Amino acid sequence: MSDTNKRGLLRRLWEGFWSPAAVLSTGFLLIAGFIAGIVFWGGFNWSLELTNTEEFCTSCHTMETNLGEYRETIHYNNHSGVRAICSDCHVPHEWQYKMKAKIMAVKDVYHELRGTISTPEKYEERRLEMASAVWTKMKASDSRECRNCHAFEYMDFTIQETRAAQNHQKAIDTGMTCIDCHQGIAHDLAPGYLEEYNHVVQKLAAKEHDADIDVAGIKAFLGTKAE
Amino acid sequence: MLSILDLLGTIGAAALGLPGILGVALGMTTRNPLVAGLLAAMVGVVSPLVLGGSHSTHVAITPLEYGVALVIGALAGLVGCAIRRKGATV
């Protein structure tokens, strides 16, 4: 009996939903729908922005290690008082890529629940793998998130350190991207990171068949740095 | 694992982006599923061109992005068309 009533109610709701409005005008429905759309979209976007805060990113236990490392870097404290938080480097600004990053970040919740990196030992075991995944994304996107704040075009090489100015000029000349040199800019590096980064560069070059990528140049640069 | 996640992310982003939302809206403008699918698929092709890439880099949009946007756009158009057929008498 209760099943019949439940089915009946659902059926009535379904039919009511698709029936022409008997008491509401088209104008009312349009205006109400418009306002409801604004409220829904505003709420959605507001919720999305909440997930971009540092408090949200570091609310999981497993984020404590990388938070501590990040707090020792220039992106956390610096002379200019400008701070780049987690989302500035890990979440794209462009809508479709931002949504993609948010959807892909669901895996972090899964691994938090599974305790994949719940101890310092487990974290160290996975450090290179996690770093490699981020490097792959950054290399593939030409360090898109770095370039939200930094651009070669806006750099004044005359006020940079000589070494930095020379390497930035070399990067422009050879088509390198930020992550090619700045792998450990916000988190500690695992042993064997250069070999792993070389692997990332080769993997992406093979995938894209992009003649513009100067793999040999990047490898040579990484080799020089390793020495 | 990453490639499956990448695909899921691309699909979700297309559904919540222009191909999905404008696709449903365009689909609701017609009772013809073919027209709805084609219109919305066009949005799927155009949206990576208009919104893809970024202002600061020159990374090529991948065929996967185009393909997913096209399929999601076409599906969204068909959903919009179904809404029109079910919910309107004209």
From TrEMBL, chain A:
Chief place of localization: membrane
Keyword rRNA-binding set for record: no
Keyword Transferase: no
TM regions (residue ranges): 21-44
Keywords carried by this UniProt record: Cell membrane, Electron transport, Heme, Iron, Membrane, Metal-binding, Transmembrane, Transmembrane helix, Transport
Gene Ontology MF annotations: electron transfer activity; heme binding; metal ion binding
Binding site for heme 2: 86, 90, 187
Topological relation to the membrane, as annotated: Single-pass membrane protein
Annotated heme 1 binding sites: 57, 60, 63, 108
Cofactor, how bound (note): Binds 4 heme groups per subunit.
Pfam short name (any one): Cytochrom_NNT
Function: Mediates electron flow from quinones to the NapAB complex.
Name the record gives this protein: Cytochrome c-type protein
Annotated organism of origin: Donghicola mangrovi
